[in-house]
């Protein structure tokens, strides 16, 4: 009988973990190389343990996956959604497992992170600053300045765009950007106009979230503000890495 904590994966999530095309994963599932079963809706599902076993047998364990993937995901929100209404990194399955391994989502506030958001707000003269972590279903704020809510749905997250690149991601005026002009956080509280962020990485350069600053007015960052935000994001990344599961 399978372990009740052994995560259930879709074919796409299986392909992402294996680093192969979806068609290849489908072939391996159909020919029995990866044990599977069908849901009442006719969709194939597999156990994470079966995927890991195949990776070990065929030498398919990628360096990042081997270093960051826990035995199982602790919650469904650390597994990719079958379809997502937000931009998804090509390695989203591994990214979510890495976030799970960091064991930081839904932890209490910590002064070290609160100091970083305060400094980010001060050095960029921004009324709002966040340390945001992205599960498959929500963006959760480990630390926040000038924002009342502690989380939002993932498909509202500007940060979903920011984690797709290594460096600075900027939206100078969200009302003029078709990606964000209808976003609930733009048309409603906190009425975001300006957004700037650097990704936060684990030890294997997997992006887990962002350090971002926001404003209710369109604007730009000066060079020294960009440098300061980059350095603060690097410190936040180092603090998160301290918490990563062995």
TrEMBL record:
Gene3D superfamilies registered for this protein in UniProt: 1.10.1660.10, 3.30.450.40
SUPFAM superfamilies: GAF domain-like (SSF55781), Putative DNA-binding domain (SSF46955)
UniProt GO MF annotations: DNA binding
Boundaries of every GAF domain copy: 108-245
One Pfam assignment: GAF
Protein's UniProt name: GAF domain protein
Organism for this UniProt entry: Duganella phyllosphaerae
Organism placement in taxonomy: Bacteria, Pseudomonadati, Pseudomonadota, Betaproteobacteria, Burkholderiales
